[in-house]
C-alpha cells in the first residue's frame, strides 16, 4: 500500500480520510482545517456560505446584499426576475424599468413611493386608498 505524507506526518493511503465523509482522500484535492482534512465537496458543504435564495453553497463569486450571500443568478428583480443593476428596498430589488407603481404603472425612479404589503404605490395611488 502507498504511503502519503502531509504536514510532516505519514499515513497509509486508506488511513488518510476526510474528517466528514470518512472516505479516503488518496490523491484527490483536500483542504486542511486545524487538525482535520476535508475532501473539497465536504469542506464546501460544511463551511462555504449558502445562497440566501436557493440555499446551495456558494463556492466562488456571487453577490453580497445586506451582508447576505447570493448566487448572481439568484439575485434577480422581484418584478421580472431578470438580472442586472437594481434599485433595492427592504428585501426586494427591481430594475429601473420595473420599479413602477403596482396600480398605475408610473415610474417610481427618483420619486417617493409607499410600500403596501407586496405592492409599491406612487403618492397619488396611495392617497386614493
Give an overview in words:
A hairpin with a 2-residue loop joins strand 3 (30-33) and strand 4 (36-39). A two-stranded antiparallel ribbon has the order 1-2. A two-stranded antiparallel sheet has the order 3-4. The longest helix is centred in the middle third of the chain and has 8 residues, at 40-47. The chain has 129 residues and is mainly beta. It has helices at 40-47, 123-127; strands at 3-6, 9-12, 30-33, 36-39, 63-65, 68-70, 87-89, 92-94, 114-116, 119-121. The chain starts with a strand and ends with a helix. It is built from two helices and ten strands.
List the keywords.
two-stranded antiparallel sheet, 129 residues
Give, in order, the helices and strands. Answer: EEEEHEEEEEEH
Query: If you compute it from the alpha carbons, what radius of gyration comes out, rounded to the nearest whole angstrom?
Result: 24 Å
**What is the residue-averaged pLDDT?**
86
Largest sheet: 2 strands, antiparallel
Beta-strand fraction estimate? 25-35%
* Global geometry: rod-shaped
Class from helix and strand fractions: mainly beta
